Amino acid sequence: MTRLPSHFYAMVDPAGGHEPVPLAETLLDAGARIMQLRLKDAPGRDFLAAARAIAEMCRKRGAILIVNDRVDIAILAEAQGVHLGQTDLPLEAARRIAGPRMIGISTHNVEQARAAEDGGADYIGFGPMYPGGLRNSAAGMGLDGLRAIRAAVKIPIVAIGGITEARIAETLAAGADAVAIITDVLNAPDIAAKVRSILAIARN
Length: 204
Hints:
It is built from 9 helices and 8 strands. It has helices at residues 20-29, 44-61, 71-76, 91-98, 110-118, 142-152, 168-173, 183-186, 191-202, and strands at 8-12, 34-37, 64-68, 81-84, 102-107, 123-126, 157-160, 178-181. Helix 1 (20-29) packs parallel to helix 2 (44-61). Helix 1 links the parallel strand 1 (8-12) and strand 2. By secondary structure, it is an alpha/beta fold.
């Protein structure tokens, strides 16, 4: 059974206007131990260069790097895992080329969560948890939605979508193994201080 190294799942995303590699370094220095590199609009060449640099930093610090969407880049960068959405490569196809790497699957309901677990996913993402967030979701699945997922699967759940520092405790209590936080971290005036504050809550 996969165990996530932290209750805080850091996201390296250019949403706040940050460069990915310095942002990853800031997150790692502040104590992040698992992070996802998400560069939706970057050319493959740039995505790979960032992934290689960040994977090296993660290796030196004993942290885990998950690459979003791109199994090829995860392999070439020697990242520890890949995260796939419902429209990306199917799980069984990704597993054939990713080998023993960690594979996470984004899910939005109990059926998708069960399918991911049955298919051999190492963990699932579940959301959006709350309205707002990076995608400005109009509605969230909420804590009851998360509890239903927790009852349906045994693999770790990373909750995502509109989660702020103030909502960490209730989200973990409802069954999430980790919280992925983007906007609340990237928009913070001091990202490192924000991460340390989040980790202080998420350790409990």
